[in-house]
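hiii, so i know i said id send this last week but things got crazy w the move. better late than never?? heres the sequnce for the chain we talked about at the cafe, plus the structure i predicted for it. fair warning i was half asleep when i ran it
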Amino acid sequence: MELVVGASEATMSSLLSKLGGLLAHEYALIRRVRGDIQYINDEMASMQAFLGDLSSAAAPQGHDRRLKDWMKQIRDVTYDIEDCVDDFAHRLSHDPGGDVCCAFVVSNVYELWTWRPRRNIASNIAELKVRAQQIGERRIRYGVENPKNGGGHHGGHATGFQAAENQQTRLEIVGTKKPVGVEDDMKELGVWVSLQQQQQPVAATSPHGPSSSSSQAEAKKPDQGVLSIVGFGGVGKTTIATALYQKFGDQFDCRAMVTVSQSSDIEAILRSILSQVMPQYKDGNDQQRSSSGITLEKNRLVAAIGSLWPKGHPGDEQSGGSTLEITQNLKKHLEEHSYLLLVDDVWSASMWEKIKKSLPKSKRGSRVIVTTRFQAVASACIRDKRDRVHKVVVLSGDKPRELFKDESEISEENFKNNIPPRLWEICGGLPLAIVIMAGHAACNPDRQLKEWEKVCTSLLPDSAKGLSQEGVTKILNHCYNDMPGEIKTCSLYLCIFPKGCKISKKRLTRRWMAEGFIGEKDGLSVEDVAETYFNHLIRRKIIRAVEHSGNGKVKSYQVHDMVLEYIVSKASEENFVTVVGGPWIMAPPSNKVRRLSVQGGDSKHQKIMESMNFSHVRSLTLFGSLTQLPSNSLKFGIVQVLDLEGCKDLKNQHAKEICKMLLLKYLSLRRTEIEKIPNEIGKLQYLETIDIRETNVTELPNNICQLDRMVNLLGGNKKTRKALKLPQDMKKETMKLLRILSGIEIIEGPSTVVADLHYFTDLRKLAIYKLNIINGGKLFRELSSSIEYLGGYSLHTLIIDDESSEFLKSLSALSSPPKFLNALELSGKLVELPEWITELDALTKLTLSVTALTTDALHRLSKLPKLFSLTFSLTLANQDPEIATTIWVNLAHSDGEIVISAGGFEELKLLRFSAPCVPVLSFLDNAMPKLKRLELRFSKLEGVYGIENLEDLDEVHLRVHDEAGDFTKFMVDDIAITAREVDKGPRITVDQYHE
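okay and structure toks below
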């Protein structure tokens, strides 16, 4: 069994940093304690060097269990010493200070006042010193030898991870890859999934009908059917099912995808399905949605805008309720609509039966795709002669090589000269194993042929056989141990989040930073290092990107369940994370809980938690309801990371309990019911990140300005533009480290402070969701001055939503525009683009109000050399009749259509429109040569022409208002059907939305 050292190294590094800080505070130490701390510091430094040697040594022979046990002792004493140091900071957090004249008196009074806690801590330190001595002696007594240099494939990361050399500069859009090696199966299954609308006599007029090339055999296809895709883990079931879902989904009125796994919560599963099949304003998609609605007359423009104002809709309140209510709503809606449902990773026949009973027979036809590892579940899906089972087998022939080469992205020359065929042959044709091994090769581009042959021999000595399914774990183990220590630690942290979840990249990396896993390195900021570590995990295929952001970087990710299962076992082995309520069979920790992730809350799990020791919990993550915790309490002493995102039953009184966690560094209350942040927030002197987005908090207390370590202050709601009022007492002396200030409002009033924004010179992002100030007034001048000033420092992202449009008009007059911006968003009644916008050579993401959309404006924007994504949008908050007039005037200047000609937009890959009224779009030959994705979101559509001229286009996403007129629906059908008739054309996806 391999050794686990990654997390131990990270914990040791964190401890040494804290011990150094403690030694510097002589005022807090009593006699003889300083010597004990110095001894512990030296002993821990030696142990850290030993762990580092283990990382680069060959696997030990003969005494693996003794070494593992000794490492466990190192880990436990390291945790306990760190707890003691943190308790020290908790109980003795105030420096006596004072001026020189009073220093003697203050120091003596302080010593008397803190004598008892200092004495207790001194006693604990003395005990820990003895433990550290005994651990060192025990290694010699039991013959645990020093690690020997392996000199082989384990030596690659002895020098650590070079962050500066591994930065990723390429911007991409997350796309759907076609499954490798199953082309024939996909063709056969596609015929089965494709839905023939028999009640529609003319295919071209059916909003969701098949292509005109449908055969007579398809016409006889039954309307209802269940397809069960079965195979063992890692064989590619979900890949095939997802490809079918995305290719044929737009032929159905409704579609939904849900992951079941080992969950027993049928209500949550059905609610997820309902939320996807009912058109809603909040559709769960974090990407900015696209829309386009066309009309060429002024009165029709006003009508189009009016049609999108919120009004009653049968689906508005139907995503909640009991299981019975959800089932009734599902049946009521789906009986009248065709639907496609993907139910992924079903583990029991009983769960499938519950889901099946909740699904109605559609009058317009339905298809349900089920993936499972178990033949019993697949058999349970067969209840009708029209149902079928498809068994997925491993890849054969040249397909393993093709998949390996595609995933590794190794140059042709390197692949030919240094990569032996045995590297993918040992994977036994299992896609997951091949992909993981490809990631391993991608991260070791300098490794030679002989070195790779040694790797193959170590994994599979018998060259005549391939790995069995159990061998996937061996490959994962090898690839894990090849990673640098700091990357190992970050990978273990992935098991904090539930199986099958789509996780925000920023949520993960900010937590890494709060845990102390990442610091500045190779001249890069801590944020840039975190980004590099994250991209390395993607390159290694430990995680996979599932959603892109408008700046071309990954927005969210997922972990394959077999990879996650391996990570959970490693984290459990090191007592790194304790998971309660997940699908994993995880033994309760025999010692103290360090990081707790609560993913379920039935009576069995609550009994387990009641027996746990929570006094040493450093990180608490809760999914679901606060009632899952013992006594519904948040009384944890030394918690540094508290993540309650989406947690139910969180009330204002719990916020006061949170403010007693004096060591807190990361606090997320996002999407909770919290309404107010108490004044006691000022006590959290170590707080670096507070996330209160999508809550009811609209104002921060003045005491938050006392938090001089604050880095990320996140509030407001991006979709509704609900904003956060800044505190009155923002001073230049505090919050100097602030890098992100997002979701704020700046409105006229005596308490509004803008001038102090000048002092946030480290600010990277400023997002103003609500701006309403008087033209020429004091706030107006101060904000202009602040943007000019910050633009010369670190400001990379600027978002302004101006209700009056006066400030947006004034931007052209800036004497020193923010030329280093990477992302810019200007919302409101923007008519004229700022004169300096074409000077933003570093700009990759641009979002503008649709009121600025003209052919001339596009021509100017086409000159931006690095522009990756361009969005024209109009939010509900900005819709009024005056906007219709502006759009009508723009139409007149553009002769009724927007023409995108050849030349310019050399790097643009994403184009989006999200507004009710957009003129006709015409793409001429060679326009936007690298455009990959076109998104339109609309209530009315008159035409999009020249899509065939976009040679690199992969996807067109049309999101149609559920109350759109017949003419608009006909246009959408025509676009979709025409695209399907072109073999190499872009993939068309059609969705509905409701506002």
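btw The chain has a mean pLDDT of 79. thought thatd interest u
miss u guys!!
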